[in-house]
Predict the structure.
Amino acid sequence: MMKAIIDTDLSTLSNELGVNACVLYIFLNNPINLRTTREAASLVVASDKHVVKQFKAQHCQWVSLEADKTSAPSRSATPTLDVANLIYKENMSIDITFLFAPKLTAKFVFYSNKLCITALNDKLELIKSKLLQVAIKINNSHKLIKQSLINMGVINRKTIDILQFTAVGYSRKDIAPKLNLSVRGIDYYIEIAKITFEADSLPALIYNVNQYGLLKDFSEMEAKHESQ
């Protein structure tokens, strides 16, 4: 299920660029496993609630069309999107790369009811630096990367907890009772994470995961487990 956050920074960005609305979401450059799709927008940040409805309608169609490519021939055709009922008639998207998170890309989708998309293309390189700043700010405000990775099934909260405890010096025997796991269970989560984040050792895994901003808020996590 897609979740949406309304952020005024995107409203400001839309005004600056002369468009009506904007949506931002994170997608995987390559699928991790069969449960993840390349552009599964499980969490979006939007400039207003109206554009969320339109984005959901279009995104659901995109997902249905992608699913139909691998479905049985007898499956009924996907209904066509009713363009006449859309609030905004024109849209374009711009992808922004995170150097600190190479598996991910931030996608900005801009909507307008006037012919201004061409003007955005004309100054694309200038716009991209601004979009990177906005993406980083929104990620810091809403933990967009962390929540998107969790929602897409790339990593789960249990694994994040294990790596967070490990990063500050807890042994596997110390962590096990805190998370109601066996030591072998902890090893299992770590090995899966090594594959996902392409790490050949535990220190390398912690480093790679930390690059995505996943190993933060340790004081809150520790307090949560101590209270249980």
User: Anything to note?
Assistant: The two ends are 29 Å apart (CA to CA). Residues 33-39, 62-81 have pLDDT under 50 and may be disordered.
